[in-house]
Amino acid sequence: MDGVAQLQKQLVDFTDSLFQEGFLDEQFNQLQQLQDESNPDFVVEVVSLFFEDSERLLNELAKALEQKTIDFRKVDAHVHQFKGSSSSIGAQRVQKVCIAFRNYCEEQNIEGVKPWHRCLKCLQQVKLEYSLVKNKLETLFKIEKQLIAAGGSIPT
Amino acid sequence: MAIAGEVLRRNFPENVEVFDDSPSGSLELHVLAVDDSVVDRMVIERLLKISSCKVTTVESGTRALQYLGLDGEKGPVGFDGLKVNLIMTDYSMPGMTGYELLKKIKGSSVLREIPVVIMSSENVLARIDRCLEEGAEEFLLKPVKLSDVRRLKDFITRGEGKDGGETRDHKRKREDDYTSSSSPSPSPPSSSSLISSSSSSTASSASSSARLSKRAKLRKKD
Fold this sequence. Notes:
heterodimer; A: about 160 residues; mainly alpha; 6 helices; B: about 220 residues; alpha/beta; Rossmann fold; 5-stranded parallel β-sheet; two-stranded antiparallel ribbon; about 35% helix; about 15% strand
């Protein structure tokens, strides 16, 4: 029982830290509410789908920014999509950098820094935040798995 | 704007079944959800299913119209034979936007009585007004919450009850709901998620009062 209690505490503490550090927001709680006995893996499933979709979007963004003539509307559309999906799973920091991305790219008056260069920097930021939250979530799911394997249940 | 419940009652004679009876005898709403985001489709589907609704998800306005049979003569019966009781659509979609889809539905004599709800991640007043004017029942800010779906479901299904003539106000039982004017049309649907702060870290009561004061300002502007 001691092992289970320890894992439960580890899970609760880790989850709390993710919220405190802004990686996750209230929407992630909403997702957990949608999980029950009939759909016990919902959160993992939707987050996995988010990972797949994000990789696709990041690839599309990289490609769009490599073009000789950048189609900024396309870039904006991809970032908008990424903003939406990250918001839907509660990945708050990713959502925030997406918002900044769109604002920064729209700024016309930043001297000396070409638009595409700005966009590349923004893309780097998005990639960074995405990989951070991906790692965090994968760790979270790992702890949950260990907890269940040890005979415990996820505290609600 | 007509209250959906009244519309449903008006357009369907009493002996016509609007909702599909599941084997257990309970009435279930069939919702058609339209969203180009694969993640959002998964979430909305789950939100609706956990609220005991039947769900069909499609990825575009074009697919939605195909499903609804607008190209043919089928009417609000989808290809699998289930009547659609509510359409929830994302606003920003490539190709046909949610607004364009809304216009097509409201412009169809066969489909116009189906309530349409618009979902958007962007809180743009002009957009909200445009949608409501075109006949949308509600404009929900994304991410859509369980409480939004529950409230929506209550609102839509009440039209079929014995006391289907009640005003909209009765549906709002949450303590953070504000008391707005209880006048029916032409005031726009009152949804507390209609206007919300984009910050997601505020406590729900704090953001509700932010919504309330913003909504009050919106009314004053009009």
